[in-house]
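Follow-up to my post from last week.
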Amino acid sequence: MNLTIFRFYPDLMNLYGSYANVSVLSRLLERLGHAVEVRDVAPGDAAGLADADFLYMGAGTERRQQFALADFRRFADDARAAANDGLPMLFAGTAMELLGESVTDANGNTVSGIGLAPFQTVQRARRIVGDVYGRTELFPEAVVGFMNKCGVISGVDSPLLDALDMGFGNDAEHAPEGWHSANVYASELTGPLLVKNPKLLEHVAGALLTRKGLTIPDEWPVDVWARQGYDVTARELAARRDKA
Amino acid sequence: MRKLLAILACKVGYFVGKLVGKGSSLPGKLALQLCPDILSRVQLPPTVIAVSGSNGKTSTVEMIAAILRADGRKVIYNKEGSNQTEGVATLILTNASLSGKVRADVLLMESDERYAARTFQYFRPTHFVVTNLYRDQLTRNGHPESVYDALRPALLPETELVLNADDPLSSCFGLDRDNVTWFGLERCAYSVPSPTGVYHDGAHCPVCGGAMEYDYVHYNHIGAWRCTSCGRARPATQYAATALDLRKGLLTIDGTVNIELAFRSIYNVYNILAAYAVCRRCGVSAGTAAGVIGNYVLKNDRMQTFRLGAHHGTLLTSKHENSIAYDTNLRYVQDCGTECVVVVIVDAVSRKYFTSETSWLWDIDFDHLDSPNVKRVILSGRYCNDLAERFAYSVLPAEKWEVVEGIPAAVETLKASGSEEIYVLTCFSDRDKFLTLTEREA
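User reply:
Got it. Predicted complex:
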């Protein structure tokens, strides 16, 4: 099967190795025998979301996030309709903030988001950084990563991660993190998120396959390095948490 | 009285610190506690130079000091690299008389980007050099634009700026002011038509977000840029490298000043240009500056040589969390053409703080190692799996790289076979874990 991933603003929104989320998703799908096309969308580019099997946007600086949002507004109606229709999508890093109702920058200026999700982001001058260790209802394994943002997100009704063991969540230390509704996944975690968490990668890939009417494999192909890398990070972070 | 006490405390603290081998920021910290505005109460030399930026600070400062000393000036600088406010206080107060007069012609400081605004609320540099601004230690710095925002208040209107015309981001410091001296590297044999590397921070204008065009690029997005939307473009330079031959090790500045390079890297050329430009602005002649830089061997110990079994090796210190520092050394290995085995070690991400953050590995252009002279690559350290995962997405064929988790085991593997040159790429945090298992060369 030919699968198409739309990658929004690959240059503007590509901090913290964001592009690698798409690299690992593509390779996993290819290992299952599918042909994957990654279609990059730059500001101003024409793009019909009807052709997409997956939407992706990564992390950007606060200025670049505003440039991205200014362009992404033209996709707002289509993106909301696609989300209602079950199109899988991942908004990683500061891209998450664009999904909400509004983004207020550190100077107090507020702009509206695309209104796909019911939350609001208020950015502050001081950055929020640190390792993250948390849990999701989607699978039993812990989720690991790193937080590097300045936005405090309130009004999240359905977080991706439950209360964190370690790290700053949407609006407070140890609070729930990210947003998840149907096939839309959003998280400020870097890592990159799908590289550091092979289980989340499988889950997201599974959402894509299911929507296309494709079978989810009984046994996912194993990426030894990713799995061992996850084990080391999860062990290191758990030890750190237990010491605290 | 508090001033005298602070100066005394700093001097005594520094002396005691030297005896017990302690760092150089503690005495300054003590002095600042005793007299918080001590730095605005000392009498500074007529020339005060600050150097900041993501890469090249230490090397640039070292060359500036050497040039100004050759010009007959007494220069003091923080050669131990303590570049936060406390370290700068130690530097100034240990070199001050008890009445607070700094005994030097030039105060020269490497300044941490994020602490510069705090340091320079007490006194003003006459010259401020910014080498560049790009992705560096993002766990601490956020991202390049947050560093830009943090550094901007330190660049006071009366301070003359010495800026890199080829860097679209740090060149923004020159917007709306005219006391700026620009340096840059003109089109040369190493120019490529468009930005390189795995991420493209120079694809969009940092001011308006418009698409950028490049006439040529020297590395990443450092080159001749122009915004197609707001029209901002690489400024005209006052000091430019007009010819460069890395193979012969020859650099020409402004068409007439010829310099032989001890370290043949394009990144080093930028450090030389920054040092040359600020020294010329301080009244040093072209001949004096060129005479010092020619064949100048940096004293900072970023390169260390060793022997291991039948191998000779060089450790190229590459700051973890700084993709361009890695790219610099990867490109060096590629360009040197020497048949070699390369070892990349990520064991502790930082020596100062704990983190398991490895996303920066995805910002490094490991494809440089897909070069005929690189025979084998060994990945080692606690985060070797993250490295391996990154390599699995590089263009290197899988048979070219292998994973040996333990650093001692990697050393044994190397010792057991071959005699080619070894290049080790790792950070301050990890390098001694390797070097102590080898025979060090002086």
